[in-house]
């Protein structure tokens, strides 16, 4: 805990509300200035542009950031040649694809080498991330890049029928409630009309208090981690909670599971709109009202690659490799983020946008379970379908291959439901999969408040096939 966090923790609750509001006012100034208005105007004007128009705009941005990285960023000075960007044309990125892929380990090893001029400018905004795999990083953003990013956030909100000016309730991984003994697990950011909810204090016992706070605050929309919102949704369904009208639910930061979407929409009567991005500020993918996931080509360039570096075909799962186009302080070129996804084979969305679409997001490489009969299996949430009485569940694969199933039961979960869960798992992973069930009072969150539904200690290797690995 930093000195400022220590001081904040000792403040009275009403003073913490004031501190959160003051920080919110600072964020508002950073996010909604002239750069925001400029980018927002461009996004509104190109919302229904043709694919060729978007490619032309994207290529122009790509050429600029490649030239910038080659000339000012130490890591890329020898990696990016003039031919890699001067010969680029819309629809022809062959020269660009000659640039080697940047791995996350390279960024962690020497982050300063990725900064413009090899150092930090005092005007940049630093962002400290805990890292989903336990390796923290410090990233740097230009102030105008942050403002531009929020132009995309605002358009995402608006196509979901809400805006930044309306009341929102948001789950945050920040330490806004420092005491474990607190009876109020939220703080108010009155500068942005927001009820900020602590993720790390969300348990089976505290959920009723969260729901009561939502009913009192009456937010127009909910946003944040799907794992947290879906916990509230399950309890709201069980208690038949009324008196709360939500217009939209905006999820991000975690892989959205189908089961989570279903329970949230059933509980709150609101449509879920998912969004995908990274703290590295590399891409902005968002769902439209037709539940299609669009990749915005002006925010970043998305590639989905096979292990040999070839581009995947539509419907084929591969590694997500991104090139951000708006942050010049710390540009990352052809950066493998660690997630896996597949392109859609649809040419155009019913919403009218010509942006490329994602068919599915499989999550991180660490989110795959290895089965001796089925190989690598992602998206474990189907195993939970038809199983009643579970608040939440996490799958952990050990180094010997055993799958530990951590679950938080609700009243009504007994031997029959557990047998159904085991049957579902064996149907998905095969009968030889070693399973170990563990009842727990809560699933631990990471330092950033995120919930990881699947974690594996095995090194992901897409070339590893069933029966090539011994499972103890």
Structural description of this entry:
There is one protein chain. The protein is of the alpha/beta class and 472 residues long. The protein folds into two domains: 32-166 and 220-365, Rossmann fold; 368-456, GMP Synthetase, Chain A, domain 3 (2-Layer Sandwich). It has helices at 3-9, 13-31, 34-46, 51-72, 82-86, 104-109, 143-159, 207-217, 226-239, 258-268, 415-429; strands at 102-103, 125-129, 137-141, 168-172, 186-189, 194-198, 221-224, 248-251, 271-277, 284-287, 293-295, 300-305, 318-324, 335-343, 357-364, 369-371, 375-377, 390-397, 403-409, 435-439, 454-456. Strands 1, 4, 5, 6, 7, 8, 9, 10, 11, 12, 13, 14 and 15 form a 13-stranded mixed sheet that branches. The protein has a four-stranded mixed sheet with strand order 20-19-18-21. Strand 9 (271-277) and strand 10 (284-287) form a beta hairpin. The longest helix has 22 residues, at 51-72. The protein starts with a helix and ends in a 16-residue tail after the last strand. The model is unreliable at 466-472 (pLDDT under 50).
Layout of strands and helices, then pairs:
Blueprint: H1 3-9, H2 13-31, H3 34-46, H4 51-72, H5 82-86, E1 102-103, H6 104-109, E2 125-129, E3 137-141, H7 143-159, E4 168-172, E5 186-189, E6 194-198, H8 207-217, E7 221-224, H9 226-239, E8 248-251, H10 258-268, E9 271-277, E10 284-287, E11 293-295, E12 300-305, E13 318-324, E14 335-343, E15 357-364, E16 369-371, E17 375-377, E18 390-397, E19 403-409, H11 415-429, E20 435-439, E21 454-456
Parallel strand pairs: 1-14, 4-6, 4-7, 7-8, 8-9, 18-21, 19-20
Antiparallel strand pairs: 2-3, 5-6, 9-10, 10-11, 11-15, 12-13, 13-14, 14-15, 16-17, 18-19
Helix pairs in contact: 3-7, 8-9, 9-10
């Amino acid at each position: 805990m930093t000195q400022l966090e220590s001081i904040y923790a000792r403040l009275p609750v009403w003073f913490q509300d004031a501190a959160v509001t003051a920080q919110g006012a600072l964020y508002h100034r950073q996010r909604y200035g002239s750069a925001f208005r400029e980018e927002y105007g461009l996004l509104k004007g190109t919302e229904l542009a043709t694919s060729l128009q978007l490619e032309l705009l994207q290529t122009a941005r790509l050429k600029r950031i490649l030239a910038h990285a080659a000339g000012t960023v130490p890591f890329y000075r020898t990696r990016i040649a003039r031919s890699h960007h001067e010969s680029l044309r819309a629809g022809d990125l062959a020269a660009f694809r000659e640039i080697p892929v940047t791995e996350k380990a390279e960024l962690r090893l020497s982050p300063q080498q990725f900064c413009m001029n090899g150092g930090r400018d005092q005007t940049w905004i630093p962002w400290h991330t805990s890292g989903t795999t336990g390796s923290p990083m410090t990233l740097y953003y230009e102030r105008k890049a942050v403002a531009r990013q929020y132009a995309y956030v605002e358009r995402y909100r608006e196509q979901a029928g809400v805006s930044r000016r309306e009341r929102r309730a948001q789950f945050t991984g920040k330490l806004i409630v420092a005491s474990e003994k607190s009876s109020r697990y939220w703080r108010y950011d009155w500068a942005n009309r927001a009820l900020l909810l602590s993720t790390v204090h969300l348990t089976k016992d505290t959920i009723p208090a969260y729901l009561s706070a939502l009913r009192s605050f009456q937010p127009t929309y909910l946003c944040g981690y799907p794992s947290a919102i879906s916990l509230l949704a399950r309890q709201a369904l069980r208690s038949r909670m009324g008196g709360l009208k939500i217009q939209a639910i905006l999820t991000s930061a975690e892989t959205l599971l189908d089961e989570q979407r279903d329970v949230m929409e059933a509980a709150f009567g609101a449509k879920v709109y998912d969004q995908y991005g990274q703290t590295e500020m590399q891409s902005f993918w968002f769902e439209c009202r037709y539940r299609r996931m669009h990749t915005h080509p002006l925010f970043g360039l998305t590639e989905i690659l096979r292990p040999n570096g070839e581009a995947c075909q539509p419907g084929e799962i591969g590694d997500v490799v991104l090139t951000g186009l708006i942050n010049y302080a710390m540009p990352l070129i052809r950066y493998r983020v660690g997630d896996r996804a597949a392109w859609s084979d649809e040419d155009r969305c019913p919403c009218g946008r010509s942006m490329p679409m994602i068919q599915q997001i499989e999550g991180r490489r660490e989110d795959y379970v290895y089965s001796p009969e089925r190989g690598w299996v992602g998206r474990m949430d189907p195993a939970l379908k038809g199983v009643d009485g579970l608040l939440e569940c996490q799958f952990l694969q050990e180094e010997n291959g055993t799958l530990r199933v951590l679950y938080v039961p609700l009243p009504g979960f007994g031997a029959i439901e557990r047998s159904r869960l085991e049957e579902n798992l064996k149907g998905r992973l095969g009968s030889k999969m070693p399973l170990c069930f563990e009842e727990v009072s809560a699933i631990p969150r990471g330092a950033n408040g995120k919930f990881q539904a699947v974690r594996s200690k095995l090194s992901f290797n897409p070339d590893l096939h069933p029966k090539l690995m011994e499972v103890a």
